[in-house]
Amino acid sequence: MLSETVKRELKRIVGEANATFAMEDLLCYAYDATNSSYMPDAVVFPSSAEEISLILKMANSEGFPVIPRGAGTGFSGGSLPVDGGVVVSTERMRKIIEIDAENLTAIVEPGVVTWELQNEVEKLGLFYPPDPTSLKFSTIGGNIAECAGGPRAVKYGVTRDYVLGLQAVLPTGEIIDTGVATAKGVVGYDLTRLLVGSEGTLGIVTKARLRLLPKPETTKTLLALFPDIKDAAKAVSAVIRAKVVPSTLEFIDSACIKVVEEHAKMDFSGAGAILLIEADGGADSVEKETVTIERICLENNASSVRAATDKYEVKDLWKARRAISPSLHKIRPDKINEDVVVPRASIPDLIAGIEEISKRHNLLIACFGHAGDGNIHVNVMYDKKNAVEAASAEDAVVEVFRLTLRLHGTISGEHGVGTTKSRFIEMELGPAVIDAMKRIKATLDPKGILNPGKIFPKAKGPEKAEFAVAGKQTQ
Amino acid sequence: MRKLVELKEELEKCVKCGACRSVCPTFRVLGRETACARGKLTLIDACMGGAIEMSEAYLKHLKECTLCGACRDTCPKGVDTVAVYNAARVDAVQKLGAPLFASIVFKNLLESGRIMDVALKIASRLQGLIFKDGTLESGLLSRFSLPVIGKGRLLPPLARQFFLETSEARGLPAPAKTGQLKVAFYAGCGVNYLMPGVGKASIEVLKKAGADVFVPAGQVCCGMPAFASGDAAMARQMALKNIEVFESFECDYITTSCATCGHGLKHMFADVLSAAPELKKRIEAFSAKVIDINALLVNVLKYRSAGKETGGKLVTYHDPCHLNRAQGVRNEPRELLKSNKDITFKEMAFPCSCCGLGGGLSIVNYDLSIEITERKIESIRASGADIVATACPGCIVQLRDGLHKYGVNARVAHVVELV
Ligand SMILES: Cc1cc2nc3c(=O)[nH]c(=O)nc-3n(C[C@H](O)[C@H](O)[C@H](O)COP(=O)(O)OP(=O)(O)OC[C@H]3O[C@@H](n4cnc5c(N)ncnc54)[C@H](O)[C@@H]3O)c2cc1C
Ligand code: SF4
Ligand code: SF4
To answer: Would the CB of B30 count as within 6 Å of ligand 3?
Structure first.
């Protein structure tokens, strides 16, 4: 609960119209794409770093949590006000401040929607590659805080690779500028990289200087159908081994294919898996690459490989691909969605291992994702009303994590830890690493007011006992 | 029509992915979660469950929506958001006992050719005193500051003679039995009271296309505005009356040049009358005949323009939500325009984005409504077109107002006027 004084102060800082305590508003800032909900005590819509700084200073003196929020599309609960407090929405900070075509940089406010930036820079022949599947509605601030990645990561890397510098407000209220405006820079610790992927726990990003690239001349999209999922997995490794770098290499298994068919009104009957592959660059090299990719797919028993015929088909395919995640519920009522990553050469082992886990637990596990960089979205499908099924789903997820780590992978490639994975980080990170992270957090946020309850497990306990709660998180 | 409680499963389908934020025109302007579908569904759910009252704020959020259906189209979970919104509006009206807006007007629109017409005609004489010609295609600007109308709003003048009273309409009371396809023309309020020219052009092109067109007398408002205001009872009466009028003629098709009326006739009638199973067959027979004029011309009558002088060169097209999303008619108007060799067709950016008028938004919150229009006007400006074609009188009104307000010199016309 916030005192009347705090409420009055908040209104004074951001303006009467930009602070709300109304139940109607609070309800709409209580959730994110995990589909769970915690009520905040207030939502504010600041317009500047200075306003955010004042709010954070007050949070320290008055002791209330502050939760940064972009579009609320996170898959790990990062923007959930789990302990109540004040949600700081960046929805009013949505200006593209500058696009510098000479230095290939852009300066944006955190609330800019990723696609809007891409759209603007592409008009100038430039290119901002990070493309989380949520790019049409998630924000740059959220992308930075989660270090979002997408299909293009296989060639172009993730958000981290495009952040040159940040303006951020530290939990204690200081406004800092990190990074450089140049192509390189090594003065001091790399605070930019510390903030990227910190899930809104170390600072609130108020401006970002981003790196741009020239827009690739042309893009070609291939669709390869495989009767056997294992062959598709092998083809992924083979493509990478052949030193071809496609700009995207997406993997879609048979359960997900059904969803795609429905969305794109296409027929993929007989396919056990699909690879959606794009090559981009100069026309000549794209042509050469797609020929190689096609050959490799056929060598690995693809039943057909074809190029998307026009831009509408490409658009439809991607629209369908983007719809997979939210549409999986059509297969089973609930799902536990994980985004594990393994070294690319280990993808066949991961797929085989998941198939085995799925059979043993008699659960459908739907897999799709950015196979090109080893990042597979693993969706354990179940019905939470069925207690037996729910319990096996929990076991299956833990086994998928173990398998991933055995293959030298990581349990989250892009969605972050937030609340949904905090109880598992000890599986991956050693105690000394976690301790170092906690000390960084405690130094920057001594009162623990910025986005509390995220990343670090609250109390120690066996991973399974705490899982009951995670089962609820069925984005 | 399904009641709100019966739509609980639609609400539960929402997984809060946020995809609806990317398309919502009101969210684009307001930038608040409460404006987009994810927020609205949350509020409707909360209100149903008793977590919040049917408060001022709740109603405000409910009304801040053009019912454009973009969220429904984009939702990967297939949540029928518009059905939920309509049901929530009806539910609110039942609990509050009054429509969300403009109830008096609807009552008059139920009576064809009677009180409303007389009242409006007096108004049309008076309008010269209150308004001055806004020059831009002779829309009207108020001479005094009129709070009900909105500052600087360009309103279309009332027609001196309503379409249904023109000799063109009256001269065609029943099919001429020429052996051609018998097509009944439904005018709708926009065409009747504001744009008789569009009605005349519709008749003309239908004749040219080889239809035995006629205009049944006694037709009344389709009820879509009443329905949007949550007044389902009124919409029901209007639906019944229209069905009766059109049933008394034998015809192959019922067509209209209003996207909203078309959607109403084709879908809303069946929806509001679904509680009466004895009417089912009659409604089905009626709805099956309803077809938008663009679709009728292109798909059935195979009409191509032989070329027509339009006074413009570059023409772009705005997709009315009630035609594109609600009736799936996208290519037909474009084909028609492209068939006129005297003009060049150019697609604008975001042709499907809502003009901002719908769902009663221009009545309950004109400022928001016209701000939504701004994006559309920017698209038009960037396209360089000198004529904006569309296929709905509502959109025409809003686009004219927007072009005037944001200072873009282009003319708005209905597709039928250009082919
Ligand atoms: C359908 C769907 C598909 C998705 N696909 C992908 C994908 O392919 N790749 C991927 O990486 N992710 C994906 N996501 C997850 C999600 O969209 C990303 O994590 C995205 O970056 C979140 O952005 P947001 O603006 O919604 O942030 P929010 O969800 O609002 O917040 C996410 C985190 O960022 C913090 N935060 C937000 N703004 C700031 C700021 N200005 N300063 C500091 N911290 C801040 C929040 O506190 C929170 O911890 C997907 C989500 C959905 C619903
Ligand atoms: S797109 Fe559909 S499922 Fe996603 S938040 Fe909006 S209404 Fe809910
Ligand atoms: S119908 Fe249109 S205006 Fe209403 S919530 Fe959906 S997208 Fe927004």
So the answer is: no
